[in-house]
TrEMBL record:
GO biological process assignments: lipoprotein localization to outer membrane
Homology family: Belongs to the ABC-4 integral membrane protein family. LolC/E subfamily.
Organism superkingdom: Bacteria
Keyword annotations from UniProtKB, A to Z: Cell membrane, Membrane, Transmembrane, Transmembrane helix
Name this protein carries in UniProt: ABC transporter permease
Species lineage: Bacteria, Candidatus Eiseniibacteriota
Annotated source species: Eiseniibacteriota bacterium
Subcellular location: Cell membrane
InterPro entries (alphabetical): ABC3_permease_C, Lipoprotein-release_system, MacB_PCD
Boundaries of every ABC3 transporter permease C-terminal domain copy: 437-562
Transmembrane segments annotated in the record for this chain: 59-84, 104-131, 182-202, 434-458, 478-505
Domain MacB-like periplasmic core: 185-404
One Pfam family named in its UniProt record: MacB_PCD
Amino acid sequence: MTPGAPVPHSRRARWLLGLTAPIWVAPFLLAQAMRLCAAGLLALVEELRGRPLAAPPAVLWLLGLPALALFPAAVGLRGLLYLLYGLGRSALPLRWRPPRRGRALALCTVAGLLAVALLPLWLPVALALWLGRWVVGRLLVPEFARALRRDPGPREEPMVVFVGLRYLFSARQTALHSATHYYAAGGIALGVCALIVVLSVMSGFDREVRERIVGTNAHVIVLRFGQQGLARPDSLAAIIAGHPEALATAPFVFGKAMVSAGGGAEGVMIKGIDWEAESSVTALARFTGDPPGDPGLKPGPGRTPGVILGKQIAENLGLYMGDEVILVSPAETRRTPLGFIPRMRRFVLVGLFASGMYEYDASLAFIDLAEARSFFGLEGDRVTGIEVRLRDMNRAPPVADEIVAMLGGFPLRANNWIELNANLFAWMRTEKRAMFVILIMIILVAGFSITSTLIMLVTEKRREIGILMSMGATRAGILRIFVLEGWVMACAGTALGTGLGLALCHVLERYKIIRLPADIYFIDTLPVRVEWGDIGIIVASVLAISALSTLLPAWKAAQLDPVEAIRSE
């Protein structure tokens, strides 16, 4: 173009369109999207009708706006139906499908819907079966896969087993390689043993705390809002007994007081009980030494009423059986010419409460129900609440709500042992999971030891690997040789660690050789409980980590070039 010549019209138009693009691009793209969605919707209708559908351009523009929403929905629904049909078709055997296409389509779609609804049930099983078949058939026992396919192939498993065990236990190996094999298996054994012992201690601690909490407190406690207490406890207990989950009930009175003896004093939580009813709801009799009956809480003619004190309270005050104590209630005071005097009552020590949980042994005291009513000023037959023992203590929260509904609801309310100790149990579960994650690092270190051991072995046996491949060994066979070596080390370490862990747990559980400070850990001995579910998870995790640790060096060995491997030697 010569200087001074006019700019062509097309270039001016492009500049103008470019400058005004922010104004017209959005409406233009919206119009194109409406037209395409309308055309796609008409194409779906034509497919359903089975014949072409003539539509003028004006119809496309009229359908444009609703087609923006209908066409993506129709495409998504169609894809979902095809997915369900394909899933059902693959699930149904051929002989189950009806000959007519419409019925077969409907049956496969229904089967697909059922498969999707039952997805959480069959998907984990299917994945486990597929993974197990792949690992066993492709890596460990190819004859299994060939038997399923009826594919007669070369049997090289004898060679794989012979060479793998030869490399592992050969007397001509260097001392370093033999030591690394033992160190790798020992690392796995140490990790498995530590995992089993620690998780068993965690499970035992959980069990002991639950038993002691449930042994001291009932599964469900029915209370009333306010300080008035429950009236007519016998009639309420009769209604509660009608619940199918309720096994026993017991009324109680609860309050705070101070016990004084020998110049010392301790704050206590007083619980007034009926001995026979309480023994059917909690494990109080077991924690007090299993006496045959009431140890003497009810006062006889001319006798002082009895009291059962927590073991730590009695030790702090230096009390022995038969000593007299004075219970003082600062909240229950009476006015005298000398001022306000707290209510005091004399009792005799008739039993010691030793649950093993410091929190309870240092705070609880038990007296007779009638004496507690009188001591805390409850009128008539009123009580603080009613304890309920259930058939299944793990269903305490829903059963507590059902019992309150049976009793008429507000102003009654209910507590249960799970909600009262929810923070404690959540902390124990979190601690157990954290310890599992921390200790599994030992297994990861042992897995790296297996990897390094196999890499050293592959480096040393390059020439032998090349000779085997030149003689006809397949790459899959070479891979399985080193996978077999890793599996032998992993299985040996897992078996040794499992045996050591179970033996150590048995010793700790039977002989109680480790003592704990009860004021810190709730209990005074180290509890141990072996849960076979945890053992299974530990063994599966260890074998999975070990299997993954063998893949890299085994794959490297299988990828060696036989010519280069022999030439390099």
